[in-house]
Amino acid sequence: MLRLFVALDFPDDIRRRLAGLGGGVPGARWTEEENLHLTLRFIGEVPDDMAGDIDAALAGVTAPAFDLTLDGVGVFGAGRASRVLWAGVERSEPLIHLQSKIESALVRAGLAPEERKFTPHVTLARLKDAPQDRIGRFIAERGLFRAGPFPIDQFTLYRSHLGRTGPVYEAVAEYRLDG
Ligand code: 3AM
């Protein structure tokens, strides 16, 4: 089986700035700098022999390249159930368009439709029993974070290897957007 997802990756300087947001929250497991990305579609475990169909479906996606801006930080979950610290994404029609093209291509390739609404974000950290006041302080102090606009001219199919020291993401294929 292969564990796959589709994501946008960022220019090195943007990734560095995102990684620089980390720290100061006990119970937070920060995303490694090289792993920072924006998930467009989590595919999950598929049999090895589906990879060819998935690749062909993604290769058939046509959508324009665009500029993206990251904006603000926040938390998914509330209180003791706080799960993820994220960096936000400025509203972007081309991003939504690209995501929905990828979604329909994958469904045509035989994957079950994604039921959850697309909530664009960059996971900065996963939280376990993080104190509320420190989460609140993180959001207050980093709330003005903004990066970009920077160009998005491709998207990537990743394979996720789950390891004891955290996931390793391997880029399997890259797909150009129309310039
Ligand atoms: O971009 P983020 O970090 O939010 O959380 C996982 C990560 O998203 C998500 O897929 C991305 C690459 O691993 N993910 C992992 N398991 C998942 C699942 N069972 C999942 N998303 C939905 N369902």
Overall description:
With 179 residues, the chain is of the alpha+beta class. The chain contains four helices and nine strands. It has a single domain, classed as Cyclic phosphodiesterase (Cyclic Phosphodiesterase, Chain: A, Alpha-Beta Complex). It has helices spanning 12-19, 51-59, 93-108, 132-142; strands at residues 2-8, 28-30, 38-46, 66-76, 84-89, 122-127, 146-152, 154-161, 168-176. The mean pLDDT is 97. Bound molecules: ligand 3AM.
Summarize the structure.
With 179 residues, the protein is an alpha+beta fold. It contains four helices and nine strands.
Summary keywords:
179 residues; alpha+beta; Cyclic Phosphodiesterase, Chain: A; five-stranded antiparallel beta sheet; four-stranded antiparallel beta sheet; 25% helix; binds ligand 3AM; Cyclic_Pdiesterase; EC 3.1.4.58
List low-confidence stretches.
none
Number of helices: 4
CATH class categorisation: Alpha Beta
Structural domains: how many: 1
Give the overall average pLDDT. Answer: 97
The CATH topology comes to Cyclic Phosphodiesterase, Chain: A
Helix content: 10-25%
| Main structural class | alpha+beta
Strand content: 35-45%
User: Total strand count, please?
Assistant: 9
**Do you know the CATH architecture?**
Alpha-Beta Complex
Strand order in space, largest sheet: 2-6-5-4-7
SSE topology:
Elements: E1 2-8, H1 12-19, E2 28-30, E3 38-46, H2 51-59, E4 66-76, E5 84-89, H3 93-108, E6 122-127, H4 132-142, E7 146-152, E8 154-161, E9 168-176
Antiparallel strand pairs: 1-3, 1-8, 2-6, 4-5, 4-7, 5-6, 8-9
The chain binds ligand 3AM.
Ligand 3AM binds near residues 39, 44 and 160.
Pfam families: 2_5_RNA_ligase2
Keywords: Hydrolase
Enzyme class: hydrolase
